[in-house]
Each structure stands twice: as structure tokens, then as C-alpha cells.
């Protein structure tokens, strides 16, 4: 939620900051802005809307700046507008912010009573004016005094007019890294922004601040005491964060799924059996677990839903999947023997982090499934299983979701083995089936053409349904979310058997219904449900395993999956659903990688 970049050093800063913003645009795109020193003056330029609008405002100007900060916004307080855009300036400084200042209203009143005049509706301007009001020539002192008053989650980048080669950075919850190159220093909300220049970075922890000059970065706690930090080296490459010839990051990431799954699962197989010893899990980690609570948001929670089927079926451990934003406030019943699994691609989702912290407070062991190394959830969980999907840039997750499902399958198999529900041979047999499913994913990718043809029939609809039973229902939740978030079609995922209890009244002539059939045991029942919607005029698109036969004329469009093993079919069946959403959005002219109102990483509650 919001992206921050800051730079001081030998290169031209404005161009570099703009490039950095482009890498962070997935974090929000309601507005963008930049503050930079030029010929001793602090200049600020901002624009509502995409980064391209800011670019247009900056175009035609030659810059020779070497220090500045920049921001791309996902609006929370105050509508997207030029004035509400960051950076927010005051007499002595300019500031960019990612997060929320919870006590902004009270602070704003106090500052107004002292004569401050606010120009925006944002909480961020309060932080800028507060620090400004406390400034007496020493930036650190002003920041430290202000921090004692600020409540909420925030990462700041700040420049002071009196110090034209310094960037100040502060972190409380919202993610922020600081990075070093030769004769240059950077801050950023995420690594891709600094990758073209350096791979060496530090993670700022909550309660820390940094002072950056071209020659060094110094770290302090909020009392001003120096802090020693470990310099880390990123393993990401610039290419991984580029489109690589695809029209959109989403399309590239759909095609990367077979590799992402191999990278995630292969290191966790030993002698053909699932093995999490290299992740630090004891050989009997799951043996005594009596209940698993999965807490996650959005697609990560839908991955959890698919995982629930596998864990309950194979390991016979009861699993509840909780939406992280609800988990925290529902006073969850957590008992000895329980395990809380938090799933998050970014590792920074505020609701999931809060759920993790609650579980830890209650003394329950926590296991995180996270894609981004060094992220908050990964660092705070008792145990972490990293997925190796590489950077996911499109706001709509694809490979991030698949690797979560993949690792949950391994957990299900491992738990079944430890609990002696599956003998070694049977477990190894199922691992082979899982590998077989992975080997069929390239065939699932070949369904793109069929899906783009099917998308033609969806471009003009205003509402539709996804239906399925069992794991197909879990899968349909993700299929429907994909379509909603990028094509803006109102779409509901429904358990196929539940439709007749009310919702079927919404089916009229031509209403599209995508029916999923990957479980032969349940197929006959789902076929009946398809007949019911068909009888009411629905236009049916069936996504079906080849072994499941459908009555002649039942569906208007049939998408036949490769012969995936049923238990692991969701890994392949999700692919046509992703393509269907992608091509529908493209046909409608939607901004596929940056859908309206969304941001990739939701770091506010
Ligand atoms: O980074 P996380 O996995 O914690 O993100 C959770 C959700 O915000 C995310 O999956 C969201 O639903 C996606 N945009 C869906 O495509």
C-alpha cells in the first residue's frame, strides 16, 4: 500500500526516482509525486493518477538533482487528487508516507490551534507538519520528538531543506529497506526499486530510523542510539522484475507457474517423500497437531481452502480457514495442540500479520507460508516455509496462489506420513502423482486459446457465477475473485448444491455460469446442478477433467483439462480460470496489471 523511494548519491536523482516508482506502482496508483533538491532548492511535483501523469508534468525539464524522495499512492485518507498526493511539504521539509497515522485527527486539531494551516485531507500531512513544528535545526531530534506522538503504522522518507544531500527514513510496521551502492544510498518499500543499482540492502525494523548520505547509512533506534545491522544480498534479478516479452506481468506470471511450483516443491522432497527439515521443522512437527487454523486474506485464504481439503482428507487433521481480518476480532478458540498457519505472498498484509501476532500472544505455534524473503510475517512467525515463486508484480496473484496450494499439498502429505495415516510407500505414490500433476501444467497452459475464445462470450456481461463442489468450490472462489478484480464483472462463487436454496433466482436467460468438475465422485451431483441452471437459461462454460463425461448439449463451451490426478487437479484447473479472467479483462480494455482501487500489498487494516 503506497510505494516509497528515496535516493542520495552520484546519479541524477529525478530519473532514478521515477524508475523506482515504476517498479513500485503495483503498490498503489492513485497519484504519484517527487521532491528533489536542484540548485539548492527543494522542488516538489505531484500529479493525481498514474505515474505517467507525473512523468508528463516533469517532461521537458532537464534535471541535475542528486537527492530526493518519491511516492506512489494508494489512497486511504482523502480522495485521489493533486493536493492529497505525496510528498507533503512544510516549511523545513518534505515527507512521503506508507501506512496510516491513527491519531491524525487529534494531532491535526492541536497543530491547527498552534496556527498550522493544512492544505490536504491526509493523515500524512499531519506527520509532516508535526515534525516541522518540532524542528529547531536538528532533523533527528525533531523526528524523535514527533515519533513519541505518532500512533499507527508508518514508513517515512523525509528530506530537510537545510540538508540537501540527506534522506531520513523511519519505520513502524510498514515495510522499508535501505540500500547501499558505491557513493550512493537508497530507501525503498520493496527490493525491485533498487535492483538496477545494487543488491546490498538492510531491512529497517519497526522502531528504527536511518540517516542516508551518499557515503553511508547510519541506523538508530527511536531514542537516537546507534544500531548495528546486517547487510543482506538480494538474490532477485532485474529480469525477474520485467515483463520479458509478455503483454502483461499477469500473463508472464501465469506462464511461470510450472517453474515456480518446481522451485517450491523440489527442495522439499527427500527420497520421494515430503521433508521440511531444511526449513527447520522437526521430523514429527505435525504428528501431535490436533487442529490447524489457516489465517489469510483474499487469494491466500482461497489457497488455504484448497489446502484444507487435502489436509483433512489425507492427514485427518481438522482445519478451519479464517479470513485474517476476522480472525483477530472474533476471539478465536485456540487450544494446546493447535497450529496457526498464516499464508501470505507479500508477507506484509496487515490483517494477516495481526492474526499471526494474536496467535503468538496466545502461545500457539505459528507457521508462515510466505513468498517474500525477510518480510514481516516471515520474520515474526515461529517457522516459515518460503514459496519460491520469484517476484509477483501483477496485482492479481497467479503463481503466488499456486505455490501456496502446492506447499499445502506437501504439508498434507507430510502430516499424513508423520501421523502414520499414510504408509511411506503410499505417501511416495501420492508424491509421484503430485509430480505428475506438475508435469501436466504445460498442457494446461496450452488451453489459453480456448479460454480467450470463451472470454468473447463474457466481455459484455454484467454478472455471472462460478459453481463447483468440494475442492471445486474452493477453486471457484479463486476463479471468481480473479475475474472480479481485473474485469470488474460482478461474479459470485457458489457451492453448486447450494445455488437452489436462493441464489438460483438470479439465473436468467444468458447468465454465464462457469462449472468446475475435477472430482469424479461429485461429478454426477454437479451435473444435476448444471442441468438446473441450464433449464433456466444459463450459458454454461464447463471446465472438466477428461475422465468425467458430461451429457450431450449440457454445456455451451467445454474446456477439457489435461488428465490431472484428481487430488491435485486444482494446480492445473486454476490455469484456465486465470486465462479466462485475463482475456476477459483484456477484451474489455481493463488495466490488467493494475486494476482500479487495488494495491498489491495491503499494509493497512
Ligand atoms: O500478499 P498476500 O498474499 O497476503 O495478499 C493477500 C491478498 O491481498 C491477495 O491475495 C489478493 O486477494 C490478490 N490481489 C488477489 O489476486
Output the strand order for the largest sheet: 3-2-4-1-10-9-11-14
> In total, how many beta strands?
26
Calculate the terminal CA-CA distance, rounded to whole Å.
11 Å
The portion of residues assigned to helices is 25-40%
Small-molecule binders here are: 5-amino-5-deoxy-1-O-phosphono-D-mannitol
Shape, principal axes of CA atoms? globular
Name the poorly predicted regions.
none
Structure description:
There is one protein chain. The protein has 605 residues and is of the alpha/beta class. The chain has 18 helices and 26 strands. The strands form five sheets. It has an eight-stranded antiparallel sheet, with helices on one face. The model has no long low-confidence stretch (mean pLDDT 95). Residues 297-300, 344-346, 349, 352, 395-397, 481, 485, 601-602 line the site of 5-amino-5-deoxy-1-O-phosphono-D-mannitol.
Write the layout of secondary structure elements.
Blueprint: E1 3-9, H1 13-24, E2 31-38, E3 41-48, H2 51-58, E4 67-73, E5 88-89, E6 93-101, H3 104-113, H4 123-133, H5 139-147, E7 152-160, E8 167-172, E9 177-181, E10 184-188, E11 200-203, E12 208-212, E13 217-221, E14 232-233, H6 249-255, H7 257-265, E15 269-270, E16 273-274, E17 291-296, H8 298-315, E18 319-323, H9 324-327, E19 338-344, H10 350-361, E20 366-370, H11 376-380, E21 383-386, H12 399-418, H13 424-439, H14 441-445, H15 448-456, E22 463-468, H16 471-487, E23 490-495, E24 512-517, H17 520-534, E25 539-544, E26 557-560, H18 570-587
Parallel strand pairs: 17-18, 17-19, 19-20, 20-21, 22-23, 22-24, 24-25, 25-26
Antiparallel strand pairs: 1-4, 1-10, 2-3, 2-4, 5-6, 6-7, 7-8, 8-12, 9-10, 9-11, 11-14, 12-13, 15-16
Helix pairs in contact: 3-4, 4-5, 7-12, 8-12, 8-16, 12-13, 15-18, 16-18
The structure holds 5-amino-5-deoxy-1-O-phosphono-D-mannitol.
